[in-house]
Amino acid sequence: MKNYHDTEWGVPVFKDQKLFEFLVLEGAQAGLSWETVLKKRAGYKKAFHNFNVVKIAQMTDGELLSLQKDERIIRNRLKIFSVRTNAKIFIEIQKEFGTFSTYLWQFVDGKQIINHWRSAAEIPTNIPESKALARDLKKRGMTFVGGTIMYAYMQAVGLVDDHLVSCWKKTNLGHRKS
Question: Mean pLDDT over residues 128-155, rounded?
Fold first, then answer.
């Protein structure tokens, strides 16, 4: 968990494959701890073709149903099937905007929102931008993309920097991109 915080969380991401990976993981996290999901990250990578959206979009119902027996991932049927559904819509968004990254970053006007929270208790569970993103993704047909999930997603992929002012990363984030 510490390694994830120290190397990934809050660092701006622009690569579509990585953005899709986090979309899958955040959707899987709904109702569970982030630590549980991170422990299964490698399993998701194997089960879902290294987060290749084209391959995932082509997965059959049978392939998805068989994943309900795969202990490497969270075996919730709705969450498993949402990965394929979301992959298909992700591809549609890429076609419309050129990249999913272009689509996503428009919700923050192309620049990271940097907050200056002093305690974790100050951090909201959603913001207008995450609600707008969730609304648009749901309108397009994605699932497991509510406002709270999308806020966690925006934090994870660096659209929002919610590192506390006391966190060493607050001053060391710079403009690294992954």
Answer: 97
Q: Is 34 labeled as catalytic in the residue annotation?
A: yes
The one catalytic residue among 8, 9, 34, 117: 34
Check 21, 26, 44, 151 and give the catalytic one: 26
pLDDT (tens digit per residue) in 39-84? 999 999 999 999 999 999 999 999 999 999 999 999 999 999 999 9
**C-alpha distance from residue 2 to each of 13, 35, 165 (Å):** 19, 10, 17
Q: Is residue 60 part of a domain?
A: yes
CA distance 104 to 108: 8
Domain of 44 in residue numbering reads as 2-172
pTM exceeds cut of 0.90: yes
Would 51 be classed as within a structural domain? yes
Let me know how many helices (H) and strands (E) the chain has, helices first: 11, 2
129 counts as catalytic: no
User: Would residue 177 count as lying in a domain?
Assistant: no
Give the H/E segment covering residue 113: strand 113-114
